[in-house]
Amino acid sequence: MTTPSVVRARKLVKHFNDLAAVDCIDFDVAAGETFGVLGPNGAGKSTLMRMIGCISLPTSGKLQVLGLDPAADGPRIRTRLGVIPQDNLLDQHLSVKENLTTYARYFGMPRGQARKRAAELLEFVQLDRRADDEVQPLSGGMKRRLAIARALVNDPELVLLDEPTTGLDPQARHLLWERLHKLKQNGATLVLTTHYMDEAEQLCDKLVIMDRGRIVGEGSPRTLIETLVSPEVVELRFGALPAQRFAEDLEGVGKRIESLPDRLLIFAEDGDAVVAEVYRRGLSPASVLVRRATLEDVFLHRTGRTLVD
């Protein structure tokens, strides 16, 4: 028997005047998975998250969240959501603990239960020793963990995270990843946007890549890498010489060659075999790197390298 999707979209559209911010997309988020939404600025990620969060209604198409219709059941859905926006939006006039207990009261939670829940969550995000501290002096990573704790006050079934680790140092990012892994192990479903490809590879079971409102790639990180690019990438640099001039000499090598101003990228099943062929054809690159293909390679292949304003 098929498990119902926590989020289900069919031919989902959101227009702002003549702009299609989300343009006829389909996807499903299964219970208990971490689902990523990737894309350049202006791709439609934030608009999609606002629709899932019942803040903005679709222009057309069908959207179900937790089996309900956001247009008719927005308040019921929101009581079962945890939302972590890009900005932490913490109350600077309250203590760390009070940021949680006060927020819990919005859900009608009795004071005693709110205090107990706050204590549990502060321990979960490793802020229990800072419970009585003011918010303002906390580091960026601590504030982000507090924002996550606040979003979990109502024990949500679905948690929406909009770029959860932007601006954090590596230590804070990895600690946050650990907390999100534990949250998933406890049964929550996570939907997140991120600009960090390594984060998406670490956290996401499945993801979609959006560009100009449409989905241009969908699947697990590993499946996307294997089907849309290749298992390995060879990077060739030719010192001061423009790399593009050597592209014709390597025609037919690997699955695909991408010319950049400073290097050539050759996507292939076997990077070492490509390197051998490069030298067999008489080329002598200044440097050679064979590496595993990454989600960033997929992202740039599907959305391009040109900045979009």
What does this structure look like?
By secondary structure, the chain is an alpha/beta fold. The protein folds into 2 domains: 7-223, Rossmann fold (3-Layer(aba) Sandwich), CATH 3.40.50.300; 230-292, YebC, transcriptional regulation domain (Alpha-Beta Plaits), CATH 3.30.70.980. Helix content is 33%, strand content 26%. The protein has 10 helices and 13 strands. The chain has helices at residues 45-52, 70-78, 96-105, 111-124, 140-151, 170-185, 197-203, 221-228, 271-280, 295-303, and strands at 7-16, 19-29, 34-38, 60-65, 81-84, 158-162, 189-193, 206-211, 214-219, 232-237, 256-259, 264-268, 287-292. The strands form 3 sheets. It has a 6-stranded mixed beta sheet, sandwiched between helices. Strand 11 and strand 12 form a beta hairpin. Helix 3 (96-105) packs across helix 4 and helix 8 (221-228) packs across helix 10. The longest helix is centred in the middle third of the chain and has 16 residues, at 170-185.
